[in-house]
Amino acid sequence: MGDGVPMLKQSLQISREFGDVGVIADDLSRFARAFTVEGSPVGGTRLLARSTALQHDIGVNVRPYVAKRNETTLSILRSRLDEASLAAGWENGQALTVDEAIELALDFEPARSNRIPSRSRPNLKIAVEQEIPG
Questions:
Q1: Residue 73 has pLDDT above 60, yes or no
Q2: CA dist., res. 35 & res. 112, Å (int)
Q3: By residue range, what is the domain housing residue 54?
Q4: pTM assigned to the model
């Protein structure tokens, strides 16, 4: 995951520059997954909440691979956070402005020491390949 972070940051910056809100929502979802897998579930919760709220706000039809990624991320979050922490993070994330969420995402740096052990996390290569629409 760490190797793709610079490209994901670049994508988010370009999407912001062009005002492509649909891609911003997708990128925030990807960052939510990265935060979650890399050991920052509260940040992951906040970004996933903002991403889904943004998708709802703009009325986008969520593609199946995005919905699957979000469901998997939420499942991981539920296993890492108690119900109150998840609810508080979700509420906080929905209250973020898009710019605040983007800044949170752009500040992300993978912390290897906090990673979910590989046997406990989904295979990211497979998850990424499954996201590619066919």
A1: yes
A2: 11
A3: 2-127
A4: 0.80
Cβ atoms of residues 5 and 34 within 8 Å: yes
Contact 52, 70 (CB under 8 A): yes
The verdict on residue 134 lying in a domain is no
132 domain residue, yes or no: no
**From residue 113, how far is each of 45, 59, 110 by CA, in Å?**
20, 38, 9
Task: Supply 64's token pair.
Answer: 């199946």
Which residues lie below 8 Å from residue 59, measured CB to CB, with a gap of 6+? none
Helices then strands, each counted (H, E), the chain: 7, 0
25 assigned to some structural domain = yes
CB burial of residue 77 (10 Å; 0-12, 13-18, 19+): buried
Count of domains observed in the chain: 1
- Is 90 within a domain? yes
